[in-house]
Each structure stands twice: as C-alpha cells, then as structure tokens.
Give the backbone structure.
Amino acid sequence: MADTDVKAAVAEGGEAAPEAADEVPKKAVDPDFEPEIIVFACHYCAYAAADLAGSMRLQYPSNIRMIKLPCTGKLEVIHLLRAIEAGADGVYAAGCMEGECHYLKGNLWARKRVDHVKDLLGELGLEPERVEMYNMSSAMGAKFAEVATEFTERIKQLGPSPVKPEGVSPHAAAREALGGVAMPDEAQPAAAATVQEGNAE
Ligand code: FES
C-alpha cells in the first residue's frame, strides 16, 4: 500500500489530526459508535492471555478482532498500515514482555515498527493514538482484558477512522497482507525459527 492511498482517503472524508500527536483529543463520544479494532497477538503471550481471560470469565469488549502471530517480530509496517487503510478504527500489537520474546528481539522490533506507523499516521493527518504496542505474558489474563477495554475506550473517544472503504473487512485485509505469517486459530507456532535483526523468522 502506498502512503498516498491513506492520504487520499483522509482528504476525502477525514479530519486533521491534532497538533499535539500524543494527546487524545476530547470529542463528543457517539454512544452508537462501535469501533473495529485489529489486534496482532503473539501466540505465546497475548493470545494465550486472551484464552486465560476467557477461562477467568473476565469481560472485555467484543470490538477487538485478533490475528494470531508466531511472534510480533513478524509484524511489518505494511501490515499495520493495511489494517488502517482497510478501515480499522484502531490497531494494536500485543507481544511478550520485553526480554521474554521467544525470538529474542521480535517484540522490540514490533515496537519500533508501531512507533514508525504512529509517525506516519501523524504525517498523514490521522491520530497516532489509533496504533499501539503492548507487552504481556501468557499469565496476564487480567491485563489482556484491561488493555482491550482501555484501548477500545480510547478509540471511542477518537471516533471512527476517516478511512472507511466500502465493503472492505480490515480483519480480512490484514490477514491477507500477512499471507502465511498469520496463524489459524488452531495452529501451533512454527517448530523451527531463527531471529534476524529486524525480523523473526
Ligand atoms: Fe512473543 Fe516474540 S513477541 S515470541
């Protein structure tokens, strides 16, 4: 996807992002707005934490749609942008705690890519707060629910993304962009894996 695609969509129907990129603007919240949020979740931690949250019967918003990854190090800038371009109101990556990535630095590279996408969104006139990176362990079911709840509330405050192409599913588009990297819900992570700088393979 070219940056210009997002820019054009913003120009058609969007609002300018706030001057201060790190401040969530206060807007009147539409009570009927149910954001569509894409979560790129590491199989080892956040995805397992979601299972735990379910087992603990913790409540969290149904607005999030998860895509399971073998490691957030597999998440590239283009995948995050594709979800936004396809109309996601918010996107976040959830990886292992720093120092605990099974591929050593995958979660650190994911954070760098998320930060880069934040910068790009700001340049394009979209709120950088629509993208975020979180870290958690598989034992943090409560944190998973808390993050999902807080991020959903953040996006409700921001309002709908101005990028809303007709008939496009952000979840399906992001999965397609990931190709074989995205894991089916039932699948196990790849048995063999190595880490290269900037990517987990
Ligand atoms: Fe979980 Fe890398 S972020 S294995």
